[in-house]
Amino acid sequence: MYRLSSDDLIYGYINGIFPMADTDNTLYWYSPDPRAIIPLDTYQPAKSLRPVLNKKVFEVRINADFEQVMRKCALPRSENDGTWISEEIIEAYMDLHQMGMAHSVETYIDNCLVGGLYGVALGAAFFGESMFYQVPNASKVAFHYLIEILRKQQFELLDTQFINDNVRRFGAIEIPRPEYMKRLKQTLQKKATFTEPVLAHLFKNQPD
C-alpha cells in the first residue's frame, strides 16, 4: 500500500505542490492559483504584540518538540471541524524533520508547550504548514520569531499556501501561480540554513 514519504514531500515542494488529507484520510495534492506568500521585508509585529515580546511572556524554542507541535496543529479547531493532518502526514513530516528539513518554532509557559508552528525549509524558501495556540498570543510570538530567523538566515520566500484571515494579519498577499513558481525556482537555487547556534541570540534581543 502506498504511504506518503519524505521523498514525496521534497518532490512536491520543489514542484509547487503540497499534500492534505481528506476526512477519510485520503491524500490529495494541491497547487493553489493564486498562491499566498508573506513578504519577509514588510512584516511588522502588531503594536499589541510588542508588550508581550518585551515582557518575555513566552520562552521560545526551535525544534524542541516537533512531533507535539504537529499533533497539536492536527487537533480540530472546533467540534464541527476536521483535520487535514493525518497520521500518515505526521509520520512523513517526522521523517523530514529527522533529515533536518522540517522545523518547528515553539512557545512555552512554565515549561509547557502552549503554541507553535511548523514548516519545511528548502534552499532559501520556507513553506509554512500550520500553527496552533492554547493561550492568547502564543502562535503570534512563534510566528514573530520565525520571521526573525528567516530574515537573519537570508531566506527569501515564505510560502503560506492559501490566503485566509489568519495569514492576512501577518501581511500575506496573493500572487499568480506562474510568478510563485518563478520565485520558487530562484530561491531553491540558493542556500540558507534554518538552525544555527547564532539563532539563540535572537531570543535575547527582543524588540523594544
TrEMBL record:
The species this protein was found in: Larkinella punicea
MF-aspect GO terms: leucyl-tRNA--protein transferase activity
GO cellular component: cytoplasm
Alphabetical UniProt keywords: Acyltransferase, Cytoplasm, Transferase
Gene3D superfamilies for the chain: Leucyl/phenylalanyl-tRNA-protein transferase, C-terminal domain, Leucyl/phenylalanyl-tRNA-protein transferase, N-terminal domain
Main subcellular localisation: cytoplasm
PANTHER family: LEUCYL/PHENYLALANYL-TRNA--PROTEIN TRANSFERASE, LEUCYL_PHENYLALANYL-TRNA--PROTEIN TRANSFERASE
Subcellular location: Cytoplasm
Reaction equation(s) it catalyzes: N-terminal L-arginyl-[protein] + L-leucyl-tRNA(Leu) = N-terminal L-leucyl-L-arginyl-[protein] + tRNA(Leu) + H(+); L-phenylalanyl-tRNA(Phe) + an N-terminal L-alpha-aminoacyl-[protein] = an N-terminal L-phenylalanyl-L-alpha-aminoacyl-[protein] + tRNA(Phe); N-terminal L-lysyl-[protein] + L-leucyl-tRNA(Leu) = N-terminal L-leucyl-L-lysyl-[protein] + tRNA(Leu) + H(+)
Record's protein name: Leucyl/phenylalanyl-tRNA--protein transferase
Function field: Functions in the N-end rule pathway of protein degradation where it conjugates Leu, Phe and, less efficiently, Met from aminoacyl-tRNAs to the N-termini of proteins containing an N-terminal arginine or lysine.
Family, per entry: Belongs to the L/F-transferase family.
SUPFAM superfamilies assigned to the protein according to its UniProt record, in alphabetical order: Acyl-CoA N-acyltransferases (Nat)
Stored Pfam families: Leu_Phe_trans
Signal peptide: none
Protein EC: 2.3.2.6
GO biological process, one term: protein catabolic process
